[in-house]
Design brief:
By secondary structure, the chain is mostly helical. The protein contains 16 helices and 2 strands. A hairpin with a 5-residue loop joins β1 and β2. Keywords: Oxidoreductase.
């Protein structure tokens, strides 16, 4: 009996290694999640089986850690991908239109993963720098590789970037909508509980200040969710975005692009990514020396 090798995560030094562990990813994730739940079947699964209402911070932390493992986890990446699939085996039910769904149905499972690529591609225009054509192709190839880690078969996602965009536009035209879960994620009156993360004194302070902080938090979350969603996705779902908001997003992007690259690694990269980059020689003095030698074609 032949042994089938576990799928490998993207290699060190790729585009994803520059994007997924960077703190700017935290600004992109709400748009990706919103695009996922714009699909009625995905929204139904999240509505009925997720703790996004009662424990949004814990859910977000666990999802972020899982994503880091898919990219930076080495041999652990495949095990994490298997764990994610096991977790979704029981996620099934009926969507608002009376159609049965299962989280591991190839179309739905692939859509959840596929949304990351257009959100990364669009958000980097504002928060980092636009990808070159070669970087876009590499990003898509690496995202497909992460899909293999998650158990997505080759036939379930477009094999090339040229095939991806017609697929993406077809799903936008035929399947996505402003679902009830999506409306909750961008609502300005959303009853978001205070963060339950960090040391006890920090949690206590946030709990005390949260009623005053919540209105600003939900406004910023809505702004980033809609603004960093690809424009054709916004249009397909029916989300409004004004010229004034676009100018504000451009200004925010300028600040982020100026500040984040000069941060020390301990502030710029999330912990798992920081350790993996250090082990691969991509941080600290080695990274700075390579950066000085580069003259073009840099990753974000």
């Amino acid at each position: 009996m032949s042994h089938v090798a576990a799928p490998s995560p993207p290699p060190p030094g790729g585009v994803l290694w520059s994007v997924v562990g960077d703190v700017r990813e935290l600004l992109m994730l709400p748009a990706a999640l919103a695009l996922q739940v714009a699909h009625p079947a995905v929204a139904a699964g999240v509505d009925e089986h997720s703790v996004f209402r009662t424990d949004p911070w814990g859910r977000g932390e666990r999802s972020l850690h899982s994503l880091q493992l898919w990219v930076y986890g080495g041999e652990e990446a495949a095990r994490e991908g298997q764990r994610v699939r096991r977790l979704h085996r029981s996620v099934q039910g009926t969507d608002p239109y009376g159609r049965t769904y299962h989280a591991l149905s190839p179309d739905y499972y692939a859509w959840v993963h596929a949304t990351g690529f257009p959100v990364f591609q669009h958000a980097l225009h504002y928060l980092a720098r636009p990808l070159t054509e070669a970087q876009e192709r590499r990003l898509y190839a690496e995202w497909l590789q992460v899909g293999r880690v998650l158990g997505i078969r080759e036939r379930d996602m477009p094999p090339t970037i040229e095939a991806f965009w017609p697929y993406f536009r077809r799903v936008l035209a035929d399947e996505v909508e402003e679902t009830a879960v999506l409306r909750e994620l961008i609502a300005l009156d959303a009853p978001v509980p205070p963060p339950g993360l960090g040391p006890l004194p920090v949690r206590a302070l946030l709990g005390t200040l949260w009623p005053a902080l919540l209105p600003s938090f939900v406004r910023i979350r809505r702004f980033l969710t809609i603004g960093l969603m690809p424009p054709e996705a916004r249009a397909a779902i029916g989300l409004d975005w004004t010229d004034r908001q676009e100018r504000a997003l451009v200004r925010l992007g300028r600040v982020v692009r100026a500040v984040v690259p000069v941060l020390p690694d301990r502030l710029r990269y999330l912990p798992l990514a920081r350790e993996a980059r250090r082990a691969a020689g991509l941080s600290g003095p080695a990274r700075r020396a390579r950066r000085r030698r580069r003259t073009s074609g840099r990753c974000p």
